[in-house]
Amino acid sequence: MFTLIKREIEDHIVYFIGAAACSLVFIALSIAIAYHDKSDGPPLVWLSLSIPVGIIVIIGFGAMGAGQMYNDRTKKISALLSTLSVSRSRILIARIAAGILAMLILLVPLAVTIRILLRIFAPYPVPYPVYEGIVTEVFTSAFLMGFACYCIGLQTGFTSSKIAPTFGAIVLTCVLVPLIIIKGLGTHFVLLTLAFIAASLIRTWNKFMTTAL
What we know:
The protein is an all-alpha fold. It has helices at residues 2-11, 13-34, 44-75, 77-82, 88-121, 134-156, 164-183, 187-210. 80% of the residues lie in helices and 0% in strands.
C-alpha cells in the first residue's frame, strides 16, 4: 500500500507542490491580517486576495481527482498494476489516500499557524468573533469541501473530456458556498457534505470496480 501511495504522489507531484504553495500563501495572508492595523478598518485587501487562491484550491482538488482517473484510463496504469497481483480496491484506496494527503499538506500547517496567532492575540480585543473551537469547525468544513470537490474529480475523470472536472468543481462550489452561508459551519453542513462524499465514493468505487481496465 505504501508503494502504491508513493507512486500516486510521484505521478501527481505538481498537485502536492501546489497544495504546499497555496498553504504558504494562506499562512502569509493570515499573518498579514493578524498584524493589520485595526484603526485602518477591516483588512479588506488581504481578505480579497484569499478569494482567488481559494478558488484555485477548490478547482485544483477537482482536477487532481480527475487527473488520477484520467491518467489511469489513458495510460492503462491499473491494467499494469493488476499484473503485479495488486487488487483494484488497493489501487483506489491508495489513490484516495494520496488525495487526502494533499489536502492535509494544505490545511494542517495553516491550522497550526491560525492557532498560534489566536494564542498570541487572544489577550487583546479583536473586532472579529472568535470562540473556542472555531478553528476546528472552519478547517473541518474546509477539508470536507475540498474532499467533496476531489470526489467530483474522481467521478468526472472517467469521461474523455479534460474540461469536465473544472466545471464540476465550479458547480459544486456554487452549491456548497451558499450552503455554508445558510447553514453555517455546523452539524447540518457537515452531515450534508458527508452524505454527498459518501454517495460520490460509492459511485466511484462501483464504477472503478466494474470498468474494463
